[in-house]
Amino acid sequence: MAVVVRSGRGGGGSASSSAPRNFVSYRIFVSAMFTLLFFATASVLFSSHPAHFSDNSGMQTTGRAYMQRTFLALKSDPLKTRLDLMHKQANDHIVLVNAYAAYARKLKLEISKQLKMFEDLAQNFSDLSTKPTYHTALFETNEPLDEEVLRQFEKEVKDKVKVARLIIADTKESYDNQLKIQKLKDTIFAVQDLLTKAKKNGAFASLIAAKSTPKSLHCLAMRLMGDRIANPEKYRDEEPKPEFEDPLLYHYAIFSDNVIAVSVVVNSTVKNAEEPWKHVFHIVTDKMNLAAMTVWFKKKPVERGAFVEVKTVEGYTFLNSSYVPVLRQMESANSQNLYFGATRDANNNIRNQKHVSMLNHLRFYLPEMYPKLHRILLLDDDVVVQKDLTALWKLDMDGKVNGAVETCFGSFHRYAHYLNFSHPSIREKFNPKACAWAFGLNIFDLDAWRREKLTDKYHYWQDLNEDGGLWNSGMLPPGLITFYSRTKSLEKKWHVRGLGYNPSISMDEINAAAVIHFNGNMKPWLDIAMNQFKHLWTKYVDREMDYVQLCNFGL
């Protein structure tokens, strides 16, 4: 037992003495590693090439000596730490001053005095370290620093830092605002560019929507045509009524291939007429839409005793290429590109291909189409009649042929806007400042028209314009030429225009008008119509017609 006890004590003493020895060895190892690391770092520092501060600061050191002092500062001279801090502070302010000077140059500010101040301030910081007094005593010596010199250097650095901060504080708000303004300008320019592109795309899309046949209109025409085919006995041609040629009645001419638009014109006129049984509507359409137009007015006869005549362009046999210049030009190889090939006219305006249709040129042949009538009122298919119009047949025309509302104001809508006055034929015959007028509502004295032989005049100018060089595309320019000095100006209340493109027309003006005109791309039967005006048109749509609801007109 005694042996066992002694062995146990000896084992315990060996374990307890080994722990201190291991701890001491570990400390010796760590110390050796730090010593090696220290000498390695010192070797790198003392063997490095001379270093320089940032190019922006302009404050250069003398390289090896300054690095040695910096490294030994903690051990040899505590003043070196103060010098390093002052050097860094000066360098930071040089960078800041140069940054504001760069902003000022970029923004092109009219502050040359401040720019010079910034440049001088940056140079003063740089020159401070190169002064002989400081350069030798502080930067080129390995001896302990002179505290008095260092204190003087520190004072000058702080003075210059204070001046720099004052100048920056005075100009900071101005520069920040200028930067914000510049950023806002850049943003505005970018947004304007996007807006311009969006407007162009929107205008093009609107034009496509306006000039294409909506599905609802196509549906209506097809259903009416189907009714005509399914029930031929119900829609037999009738003999012309004597009222169609009675000069004592009030006659209207409407040329269109749009069934529902024509029905609105007729309905609105009849509902607002004082004596509707004296009103006769002459509707002319193309061969494709004749059946649909006929079926509509057979299924829904005009109320209150008014008369409706439906015919086709082809029914007027005198309208052929030997008599009508436009038809002759359409058949000519030299002119076909003008009517069918080019999508834009000479002024880069997009051509409306509806102007190719003979329906639009019928307005120049009214005396021949209705030889027994004395007066006739021409209405476009995109108008709505709000008042009785019979006063126009009693109007004193003062010997004029055409009664229309003038559209000019200031320099706008003058003849110079529609005709090519660089052409000698136009320049010699017309006044570029003459006031233009509008189609849409026009009362024509057919007797005066015949006396003046204005259809021949129209033919003469249409022949001259075979190459399209006299006027822009459209029906108004040849109308302005044909009825030049032969148009009587009507009061504006007779005809208010712009409901198809101008949302700012006042309701007071609209309510006072006899006729409102949805000229423009936003026709009331399209999805792109302006909602604030659409109800003025839809209230005259015959909602009881089955096909209107079936074709989803969205009324």
What does this structure look like?
The protein has 20 helices and 10 strands. By secondary structure, it is α/β, with parallel strands linked by helices. Helix 9 links the parallel strand 2 (279-285) and strand 3 (307-312). Helix 3 (79-107) packs antiparallel against helix 4. The longest helix is centred in the first third of the chain and has 65 residues, at 147-211. The radius of gyration is 47 Å and the shape is elongated.
Short précis:
This protein has 555 residues and is of the alpha/beta class. It has 20 helices and ten strands.
Topology, element by element:
Elements: H1 2-47, H2 64-76, H3 79-107, H4 112-130, H5 132-139, H6 147-211, H7 215-230, E1 250-255, H8 259-271, E2 279-285, H9 290-299, E3 307-312, H10 325-331, H11 336-341, H12 366-369, E4 375-379, E5 383-385, E6 402-404, H13 415-418, H14 424-429, E7 441-445, H15 446-452, H16 454-464, H17 476-482, E8 487-489, E9 495-496, H18 507-512, E10 515-517, H19 531-538, H20 546-550
Parallel strand pairs: 1-2, 1-4, 2-3, 6-8, 9-10
Antiparallel strand pairs: 4-7, 5-10, 6-7
Helix pairs in contact: 1-2, 2-3, 3-4, 3-6, 4-6, 7-9, 16-17
